[in-house]
Specification:
InterPro entries: Isoprenoid_synthase_dom_sf (IPR008949), Squ/phyt_synthse (IPR002060). The protein is mostly helical. The protein has helices spanning about 1-5, 15-20, 25-40, 40-50, 50-75, 80-100, 105-110.
Length: about 120
Amino acid sequence: MATLWNRCSFKPFYLSRSIKSLSRYSSTANYCVNLVRQHDFENYLCCLLVNKESRHSIFAVRAFNVEIAKICDSTTVETIGKMKIQFWKDTIDSIYTKGICPDHPVAKELQKVPKDFCNTHRI
């Protein structure tokens, strides 16, 4: 069995190293990471494989996706759901056109995403 392990061409990946490297981010970044980990675990694991320079941007976009996906599950009244979607439309618009960001952890992280990473702000 040991010889089979020695012949493997892949290198083992240690999640603890990637998780420890996330702790250097701000509390808003940690909020995004935890949101993705709790609600979209498969993509959380995939985001850990992204290089360190892009990881916070990927988690911000994935957290935004979780926020949008949670709207359908968290509201029973259609009007409230539309208001939440309108909040995110206005937030994205104000981030990309005015540079103004509301006091929301995911929105603050989306504001840090480089503009060349997300080349459009259409929803």
